[in-house]
Amino acid sequence: MDCTLKNIADALIKSYHEVGGINRIDCGNLPSKRKIAAICEQLLRLLFPGYHDEEPVASDELEMVTNERIAELVQQFEVEIAKSLRLRDADTIGDDVRTEAHRMVCTFLSELPRLREVLRTDVVAAYEGDPAAKNFDEITLAYPCIEAIAIQRVAHVLYRMDLPLIPRIMTEWVHSLTGIDIHPGAEIGTHFFIDHGTGVVIGETCVIGNHVKLYHGVTLGARSFPKDENGRVVKGNKRHPNVEDKVTIYPNATVLGGQTTIGKSSTVGANVFLRQSVPAGSFVSNEAEYLRVINKSTGEILHEFSDTPAI
Hints:
By secondary structure, the chain is an alpha/beta fold. It folds into two domains: 28-179, serine acetyltransferase, domain 1 (Orthogonal Bundle), CATH 1.10.3130; 186-311, 3 Solenoid (UDP N-Acetylglucosamine Acyltransferase, domain 1), CATH 2.160.10. Helix content is 41%, strand content 15%. The protein contains eight helices and 16 strands. The strands form three sheets. A seven-stranded mixed β-sheet has the order 3-6-9-12-14-15-16. Strands 1-4-7-10-13 form a five-stranded parallel β-sheet. A hairpin with a 5-residue loop joins strand 15 (290-295) and strand 16 (301-306). Helix 7 packs antiparallel against helix 8.
C-alpha cells in the first residue's frame, strides 16, 4: 500500500470532488459544535449558579459574576447565531446579520429567569418522584435528567425563534452526555421527571403535560413517515404522541403516533407497545398477547389490543 502523504491527500481531494452531500466548501461557516458545547456549559452555570463551578460563588460577588458571564455568553453566542442566520437567510449579510443575532441573543437570555422557575419544578418532581433522592443538591448536581431537561428547555426557546441547527446541536450535545434524547421541538410542561433516563427518546412534535414521569427506555416516537408523490418524507406534520398531565410511563414502553394521546392520570406499564389513544385514568399493561387498558378507579377492562401489530 502506498502510504505517502501526497497520495493520501490526492485521494481524499479526489473523493471531495466525486462524493457530494457531505462537503461544505466555498460556503460560509456553520455553527461550531465545540463552541455550542461550551455555550451549553455556560448556560448551565447561569441556570444553576454554584452547581457547575469549580470555585464557590459568593453572594456578594453574584452580581459581578453574573454580569461577566452574560457579557461573555453574548459575545460568543452572537457569532454562532450569526452563522446560523446566514444559513436561514442567505441574502442577509453584514451588519443586518449581526443586528439580528444580537436581538435574538437578548430575547433568548431574557427567558432564562422564567426557565429557572420551571426547572425548579423539575427538581421538585425528581425529589418527590425518587425515594432514593436525598436532597435538591444531589438532584441538581448528579441527576442526568436535570441537565437534559435544562438544555432542552433553553434549546426549545431557540427552536421557537426558528433558529436553524443550534437547538439541535445543543440537545444532541446533552444526549451524548446523558443518553436522554429530547428533540428541541418537544413541548414539555412543568414538574417533568425522567427516572434513570438512559435510552429515553422524545420526538419533535410531542406535547407533554404537567407532572409527567418517564422511566428509562421510554420512546415517544413516530408511527410512520408519510411521503409525497415523489416518495420524499413529508416534513413538519404532527408525528409524535401527546401525554397529558400526571401520566407515568414505565421502562421500555413505546408510544407511537401523532394521533395518539395518553389521557390524564394514566399509567403505561413496562414494555408496552402502544399506537392507540387511551382515556384518562387508564392503566395499560401487557397481558399475554394483548395490551389491556383498565380503568384505574373501577378496575373495568376498557380495551384489549393485540400487542404485535405491524407498524
